[in-house]
Amino acid sequence: MSEAKWYVVHTYSGYENKVKANIDKTIENRHLEEQILEVQVPMQEVVEMKNGVQKASQKKMFPGYVLIHMIMNDDTWYVVRNTRGVTGFVGPGSKPVPLTDAEMASLGIRRENIVVDFEVGDTIKVVSGAWADTIGAIQSINMQKQSLTINVELFGRETPVEIGFAEVVKM
């Protein structure tokens, strides 16, 4: 299996979040979680002055573009290219060009690989994020996404939740 790389997709202006949602839904429907790992609309915090008051807001770093971490093959290319709102991949002709590690580092998106000694069935405690202080058993581990899935009790039923390696400790 080839390695996943980051690609840039051009979208209609203002459709970035819609394209992200559409691709995420297609990944789920076609079970492409192992091939299309992550879809991002890079945001940055901007402080603006409005009526003499400073206001912090989120702005898109690259309006009209979406970043996708994926393994490039005919299926994934077709799914992304034929998503409503996508005008094409960035690259010469119809050949997508992946971003280099240096380009990703300058965006602040590149994450270091975290080495863990977790196994399916181990009990872990969530130490940060929305599920802080939650304890659960590992159901699955995704090394490429640097995440694991645990079941948590939500509204009286077991619900799978995906959590990053950096947010958990082994019990």
Automatic annotation (TrEMBL):
Keywords: Transcription, Transcription antitermination, Transcription regulation, Transcription termination. Transmembrane segments: none annotated. SUPFAM superfamilies: N-utilization substance G protein NusG, N-terminal domain, Translation proteins SH3-like domain. One of its GO terms (biological process) is transcription antitermination. Pfam families: NusG. Residues 3-111 form the NusG-like N-terminal domain. The keyword rRNA processing does not apply. It comes from the Bacteria. SMART domains: NGN. InterPro entries: NGN (IPR047050), NGN-like_dom (IPR006645), NGN_dom_sf (IPR036735), NusG-like (IPR043425), Rib_uL2_dom2 (IPR014722), Transcrpt_antiterm_NusG (IPR001062), Transcrpt_antiterm_NusG_bac_CS (IPR015869), Translation_prot_SH3-like_sf (IPR008991). GO terms for cellular component: cytosol. Participates in transcription elongation, termination and antitermination. NCBIfam families: nusG. Belongs to the NusG family. This is Transcription termination/antitermination protein NusG.
